[in-house]
């Protein structure tokens, strides 16, 4: 038996309870978790913004050590240290053939069937996003366990599984930030802080961090932000925020904006804060009720690009070794993303902190 954080129903409080994991079957791997990051996507799963069968064990950003493997597993072995990949690509669907593994149509299959049971009554449990890392141990498909590159601390490596891959990819793959460009990052939680660091590493000249919390300025500047803007009243948010960002960039606006919140007003403001011909990448996951409007004339006149970004448009197998080199060199500081190290029973409080816009990443350490 292992302890886990179970979501019994959508919008229900998490329950810290014991669960039973089966032995890994063909193509499966059992992992003892070292750490798991508390991501806003976990909150979105719990409140129904993202669909997930329940009851489920939440958590998708994790790292740990392989304890057992099932038949036909060849990529990892017991004792290997691994990073969890919540969107493992199949390698054969249309999008994988187009070298777009982040859009794989089969990546979410592991979360659609029960993977464990409650210890108390034997009822079936699902693995949120196929990984279920809010638990002392988990069982995942082989493709979801990626070898941890040498020289990366195991606990902090959990952040590579979502926040860092997403922020790094948003900068390097989606927005394709070039040296000397200016970047605005909206929302400086875990993903936003990773985005700021990635922009700094890419050679961005001006990096403007935007957040509702003035307390995050120190975190943002430590990550590499050159300027910080406090998001004000929503009634004038777009006008005032875009105006302040243009004032910081010679009156033009930034070359790139990365939106890490998932709100219609933030997306619209990020787009308005970029220069003519600028690029806006949307990383944040919003609800279906968040509608963003543009006039046909402004789309023509400003010539800006607005694009979505799934998992940083990353190929984890390719990008992790590149990111690991940045960690080893000291250019990328994983610990700077973490503002709280907690235990399993601290996850509900971490959810509340995210709703209140407080802190960076909370990391469950086992």
Keywords:
globular; 10 helices; seven-stranded mixed sheet; alpha/beta; six-stranded parallel sheet; single chain; 366 residues
Q: TL;DR of this structure?
A:
Helix content is 25%, strand content 27%. With 366 residues, it is α/β, with parallel strands linked by helices.
Rg (C-alpha, Å): 20 Å
Query: What portion of residues belong to β-strands?
Result: 25-35%
User: Could you report the average pLDDT, rounded to the nearest whole number?
Assistant: 95
Number of helices: 10
Structural class: alpha/beta
Task: Characterize the largest beta sheet: strand count, sense, and whether it forms a barrel.
Answer: 7 strands, mixed
Task: Count all strands and give the number.
Answer: 18
- The gross shape turns out to be globular
Given as residue ranges, the uncertain stretches (5+ residues, pLDDT < 50) are none
Through-space gap between termini: 15 Å
Write down the secondary-structure element order: EEEHEEEHEEEEHEHEHEHEHEHEHEHE
Helix content: 25-40%
Task: Give structural notes.
The longest helix has 14 residues, at 316-329. With 366 residues, the chain is α/β, with parallel strands linked by helices. The protein has 10 helices and 18 strands. Strands 3, 5, 6, 9, 10, 17 and 18 form a 7-stranded mixed sheet that branches. The protein has a 6-stranded parallel sheet with strand order 13-12-11-14-15-16, with helices on both faces. Strand 7 and strand 8 form a beta hairpin. The model has no long low-confidence stretch (mean pLDDT 95).
């Amino acid at each position: 038996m292992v302890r886990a954080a179970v979501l019994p129903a959508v919008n229900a409080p998490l329950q810290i309870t014991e669960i039973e994991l089966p032995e890994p079957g063909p193509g499966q791997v059992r992992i003892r978790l070292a750490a798991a990051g508390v991501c806003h996507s976990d909150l979105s799963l719990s409140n129904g913004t993202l669909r997930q069968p329940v009851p489920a064990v939440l958590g998708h950003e994790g790292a740990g050590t392989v304890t057992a493997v099932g038949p036909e597993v060849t990529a990892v072995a017991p004792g290997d240290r691994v990073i969890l990949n919540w969107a493992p690509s199949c390698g054969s669907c249309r999008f994988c053939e187009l070298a777009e593994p982040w859009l794989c149509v089969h990546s979410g299959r592991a979360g659609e069937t029960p993977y464990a049971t409650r210890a108390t009554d034997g009822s079936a449990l699902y693995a949120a996003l196929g990984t279920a890392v809010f638990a002392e141990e988990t069982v995942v498909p082989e493709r979801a366990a990626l070898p941890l590159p040498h020289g990366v601390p195991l606990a902090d490596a959990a952040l590579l599984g979502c926040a860092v891959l997403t922020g790094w990819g948003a900068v390097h793959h989606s927005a394709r930030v070039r040296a000397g460009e200016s970047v605005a990052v909206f929302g400086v939680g875990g993903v936003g802080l990773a985005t700021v660091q990635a922009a700094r590493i890419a050679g961005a000249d001006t990096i403007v961090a935007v957040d509702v919390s003035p307390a995050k300025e120190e975190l943002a500047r430590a990550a590499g932000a050159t300027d910080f803007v406090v998001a004000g009243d929503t009634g004038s948010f777009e006008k005032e925020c875009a105006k302040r960002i243009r004032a910081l960039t010679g009156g033009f606006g930034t070359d790139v904006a990365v939106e890490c919140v998932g709100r219609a007003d933030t997306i619209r403001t990020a787009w308005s804060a970029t220069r003519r011909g600028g690029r806006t990448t949307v990383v944040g996951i919003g609800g279906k009720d968040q509608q963003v409007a543009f006039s046909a004339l402004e789309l023509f006149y400003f010539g800006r690009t607005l694009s979505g970004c799934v998992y940083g448009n990353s190929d984890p197998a390719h990008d992790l070794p590149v990111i690991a080199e940045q960690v080893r060199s000291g250019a990328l500081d994983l610990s700077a993303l973490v503002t709280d190290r907690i235990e399993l029973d601290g996850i509900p409080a971490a959810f509340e902190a995210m709703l209140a816009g407080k802190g960076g990443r909370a990391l469950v350490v086992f």
